[in-house]
Amino acid sequence: MAVLATLDPNSRAASRGWSDLTIRNAFILPTIIFLIVFNIFPLVYSLGFSFTNYRASVNRPAEFVGLQNYRELLSNPDIWNNFTITAQYVILSVGGQMIVGFGLALLLNRKFPFKGLVTTLLLLPMMLSPAVVGLFWKLLYDPSWGPINYALGIGKFEWLSNPTNALIATALTDIWMWSPFVMLLALAGLSAVPKHLYEAAAIDRAGTFYTFFRITLPLITPLLLIALIFRTMEAFKTFDLPFVMSTANVQTIAIRLYQMAFQSWDTGRASALAYIVLIVVLAITNIYVKYLNKVKER
Amino acid sequence: MAHIELRNITKTFGANTALRGLDLEVADGQFFVLLGETGAGKTTTLRIVAGLERPTGGSVLIDGVDVGDWSAAERDVALVLQQYSLYPRYTVRENLEFPLKSKIRRVEPDEIRARVERAAKTLRIEHLLDRKTDLLSGGEMQRVSIGRAIVRKPRVFLMDEPLSALDAKLREALRTELKNLQMNLGATFLFVTHDQVEAMSMGDRIGVLDRGRLVQVGTPAEIYTSPKNTFVARSVGSPPINLIDGAIRDGRAVAEAGFALPVPARGEAGTDRPLIFGVRPEDLLIERDAPAEARVHDVENYGVEKVVTLRVGDMLLRATTSARQQLDIDAPVRFSWRPDKVLLFDRADGTSLRQ
After folding, report:
1. ipTM value of the model?
2. Helix, strand, or coil here: A52?
3. A165 CA to chain B: closest CA distance, Å?
4. pTM (2 decimals)?
5. pLDDT for A48 beyond 80
6. Is the sign of the CA dihedral B76, B14, B161, A216 positive or negative?
7. CA dihedral B46, B48, B53, B56 (to 10 degrees)
8. Has residue A152 been placed in a domain?
9. SS3 A129
10. For the domain B242-346, what is the CATH superfamily, name and number?
11. Which of A194, A205, A215 sits opposite B104 (nearest CB)?
């Protein structure tokens, strides 16, 4: 009996004078502290910076300049150009990932030998470090001895030194790396479609396309949208791949931000730009989330 | 409408044999019920007719044409499943339109509207037409799913326990509706169920399946009054038939439980051959001067009648009596049976001796 009593969690907690509420708070506290120190504090602090001409490299107090940073950034055609490049990159890479990922999911959504192994192998790119992926795709794209030019037989095609080509090449790498993510979500959606619906559709003499557009697609749209939200957010602030692969040629907004903050040490202005990016990303995801809710309600 | 014939159908799933040499014939316009327990092969039979499953051996004929290589769509059958299978996110109307909108069919929009309205009216779901299917109750969903079958005017209706997921009252109502529907349409129905009440009340003919074999086919009355063996005898009737071990001696049925009652003389039953006597509860009579004695074990009052469980030695027997008859638990009573209604089965293999 005594043994049982000590094993009872309630009596033990009670004997130490801990209520459920105390225990709950004890679990929540580390997270809250972490969030405040690493997320909320920098967020507020950089908002403050964005209204100053502060430079982290110079030992001089920050001067309040009002909305000057924002005004200059938004009237700078170069920044707008960075946004345009980022948008192109997002459309190319996320569009490609959705198509390839969903296609893979459709292919995998059936029984075949070694299905588990094939699925795992397909997921590998997603688990690699972006720096590693960037470095070895840089090798693959090498103009003089890269296997890609060799396989395509296009001589010494310059993939990464010309800005347009570099954008496409980086987006292709991103597609390779992140299609499995879309595939995983789409596969979860596909396997959740009840099999009897397909049987009912077959009996109802619905053709393959009709079945796909009337049953499969509507049922997995919510999951595809979630994949789309995640990938758009990530692609919009993409930094690692362009940075590793073609240091200056793919001028996405994140690359520009990095240069402004850590190469020119223009901290105040960089904070303002970071806030502009944050607002854009929030706006885009909000559109998706609204649409997602609408799809779910239907 | 159509005539269905299954010839020597065998179906195996890996090491399991679901159906063994099944022969089945459903006449045009007939309501045929396949009755069997879980795992007897009812659903497999239905899926083979529908074309969702290929038989391992044997052939399926619809209107005399071998449809073995035809897809489900080509066979032009309608299937109603226990789990409704409504297309989610669509309204009732869109669900009903679904089979008509497929490219293969090409039905004019006016015709589609007319057919949907007609089906909705038949099934009394007109007020639900613009509602999303996930807001419907079970009974409403099953009506919609039946509606989706009837808008198409298929050659055959296949129903896989369509009423099993519904509550008792609704099941009863839909049972009648389905039977009426079938008669009005003059349609061929192949209806699968494990519920003997559904089989008895709806079927023109019943086929009793036991572990992949069709044991007996007949009208509900035939199945009820002259079952081929004890399995069929047990599978219909509620409360179930009484099966009593015994033998015939001196022209009387002597039960091992320790009572003797008259039976009509039957040569093949022989003397001392181990038998099983089958007596339906309504043929077991509780009377004051009857030859056998028992004690009242239990009484269930259903209002219309009482089901009395009698105890003779270790054996329990069920009898139905008038609800007005007063019986006390453990009180001694005397009982007999209607000798001409007693069924004789061989004890070794359970087959009826009347056949």
Report:
1. 0.74
2. strand
3. 43
4. 0.75
5. yes
6. negative
7. 130
8. yes
9. coil
10. Nucleic acid-binding proteins (2.40.50.140)
11. A205
